[in-house]
Amino acid sequence: MNRLTLAVAGGRKTQGVVDECAAAPAGHRILVLTYTVANQHEIRTRLATRAPIQAQVHVQGWFSFLLGHWIRPYLPRQFPNRRLSGLNFDGDPGIYATGVCRFLDEGGRAYKLHLAQLAIMTSSASGGAVLDRLLRMYDEIYVDEVQDLNGYDLEILLTLLSLPIDLVMVGDVRQALLLTNPRERKNSQYKGIQVKKWFDERAAAGLLDITQAATTWRSNQIIADFADSIFDDSWGFEKTTSINNGVTGHDGVFVVRPEHVDAYMPLFQPLCLRHNANSARSLGLPFMNFGIAKGRTCERVLIAPTGVISDFLRLGKQLEDLAACSLYVAVTRARASVAFVSDVADTIDFPEWTP
Amino acid sequence: MCGSVYAPMFTQLLNHPNHHRAEVTALITRSVTHLPGITPSMIERVFVEGYRRFKKLDVALSAPLNILVGDNESGKSTLLEAIAIGLTGRVNGRWMVEELNPYWFHRPNVEEYFGSYGSQQSAPPPEILIEVYLRNDTAVQRLRGVHNSASTDCPGIRVHIAPSPEYEQEFSEYMTKQPPPVIPVEFYSVDWHDFADQPLTQRPKELATAYIDARTIRSTSGVDYHTREMLAEHLDSRERTSISVAHRLGRQQITDDVLAPINARIAAENPTLRDRSVGLQMDQTSRTSWESGVVPQVDDIPFAMVGQGLQASLKVALAMSRTAGTSTYVLVEEPENHLSYTTLTRLLARLQHLASDDQQLFIATHSSFVLNRLGLDRMLLLHDGRTATLSSLGDDTVGYFRKLAGYDTLRLVLADRLALVEGPSDALVLERAIRDATGKAPLDLGVDIVSMGGLTFRRALEVCSCLERQVVALQDNDGKEPTSVVAPIEHLLHPPTRVLFVSDPSNGPTLEPQVIAANDDATLREVLGLTDRVDLATWMRNNKSEAALRILDADQRIRYPAYILEAVAVLQ
Predict the structure, then answer these.
(1) d(CA B386, CA B378)
(2) Is the dihedral of CA B96, B102, B103, B104 positive or negative?
(3) Mutate which of A29, A70, A85, A133 to disrupt the B interface (most B C-beta within 10 Å)?
(4) For B263-277, how does the pLDDT look when each residue is reduced to its tens digit (9 = 90+)?
(5) Chain A: closest CA distance from residue B194 (Å)
(6) Does B237 contact A at CB distance below 8 Å?
(7) Hey, CA dihedral for A176, A178, A182, A188, is it positive or negative?
(8) ipTM reported for the complex, 2 dp
(9) Using CB atoms within 10 A of its CB, is residue B343 exposed (0-12), middle (13-18) or buried (19+)?
């Protein structure tokens, strides 16, 4: 049966995949797909520590999966006499490019932008051979970071869901920050966190079971409760339970005035996070952007809030999807403490830290 | 995994103190136990273009066992080599990229290219294409796709050797200098891909291949690459490591104990070198890894020093013990070499056993015995870059030849034109008749006269008919009407390509009375050197071969029975 596990940040999603691979019987052939290179490396490393593993496990990135299994073997069926020479990661053929030019650059490299669409086309041009080949190669497919799939990627997922093969997906839709192609019109209603609706609809159609894993090993309960509060109840997320009961003397969510940051920094050495390079320049701290922090874990974070985040903190004004996801990612990096820099600390309902 | 399973056998093979030839033979004949988990992936087709003698060769295969036969220079070995290149990327144990040389290219293509270069219709630069098509089995799905010249959706591997786009300019500059007609391989690149268009850098693990060449022992260190590879696979990684460490320590000890005093002396005697210490040490670089210094032994004799027959047996035995579990493809070059009849028979039994759902065998042979034994229907005849098979041969005929394994079937198979006769005396008389009519020996006309020697005309003609051979058969009437002799085998005849002439019963049942009937008594007595007192018919019946030899060597010509003359007319 196809399964989706929606896990909270710090819910050991990846560990779950590794555990299942390690427990799989001998002869079982498993393909593990992830969206980011960092995560591929993470999974390979963790699998290596579990050696010897009985099953055959193959870890692959999403793009390499599309290139290697969907496009490369059967590209001539879609575009006669063409061979694939690689991936054009950043290129854009432009919105008016049609035919082969929309998908392959002059050097025969496929545009990442339309990769999944080319995969779908090649698969149907192959007359079912792409899927037959895949079915005969693997008994089970895991997709980690499933929240990052969008546009035609979802058509790929839909195809996999319909195949007689077990598809096991894990992800956290509240961390949906990456977009392969922001201009893509296909499935545009399911961008970002809205992808949860896509999964809910497939579940309703009986294509998969969704379970929630609401236990976090990372953030303490105060941070977890705050992170939960970023999203409206209408999303239907279960309340996060923390099993991090550690006490450091500075635990929970705080506000720090800009003039106290210099004192805060050496004392707590937090990871400093901001929206982008234009945010909080005046503070002069070694900031990292929200998006890049994804996947990291640290003891404490210090966040330079954007205007909308400030409004959320002060007035409880709901954030729009992407901003909410960004803040969720930023907050849930921390095990012990989250501090927001604000010059109106007294208007925010969190304890203020002073030197 | 396999290494440890067969390690006991390896040890037994190489280290047993009282080991002798019979035991090697016994090991060869030991029954094969197949390890589980190996799934077959039969080679279904091999396509070769522009490689050595093949302008284009397209071979369809379906059987686990394939026996390649053909004249010398017909490309048996070349085909095995091409399969090995496709499957392993290696040739003679070395990377094809390193081995690539101008003589790999099909000579006529090269000549055409250089001959037409710069003209209106210049030929494209020669290229080489080798494609191995596999059955669409689960184990090889990774190699599946449509990147092959047939655009077929199946698993497979493709080697394409063509001018490198990178050196396009250098290549054309080179050509403007009117170079000698030798392909400048420096400007070529070797593209090794599976049919999914995934580049290959090493042999795909699904395609375990064993190449057994009993003909020669190539490497100067006594053991060729294949043998060494086999040996290495009998050792597990722990054993390999311990050998490697001991080897390294040993070399270091020589440096410390033996070379150190020598170095001290060198330093003392060469004051000019004093500011830099110069001396000798044992080479510890990877070039001197233990693999190149370790050789198999038999009865404490290094492998290279034992007899070639034993070497061949040993190689085959080693390859097979490994092969039984791991290799999907086994390529064997001329297994008959250096082997005694008994050893060969046992070896063939084992080879036959090996060919199964799990393994596919390709055997190149010059031996009719090997061919008959392993089954004529498994034969793949290479001729002029084309292939023919005997797969439509009836099972009973295959079984018949298997029992008659000593029969020289390859003569039937390889001859340009065949004359089939009853026995040796018929062969001699026909030879003389051809010479009398044409002034040439039969072989100069491309005619091979084969005497049946126990084989029936029906079986022989069945083989010839499968191969569409040109054949003239001469059969005795044995007292029957020619029509009743022809009737049972008429379906195998195809005039004028395959014809049968039967002697006239009114002139006697066999060759001797036929000759007597065709000649006057005096001439025949003179040719045979017989006096009047001898009864001609009796003497000839009792001295068939002698009579034929005298006819062959006589100064005087005889007259020939009509059926022989008709045959000669066709053969002319």
Answers:
(1) 16
(2) positive
(3) A133
(4) 888 877 776 655 677
(5) 9
(6) no
(7) negative
(8) 0.84
(9) buried
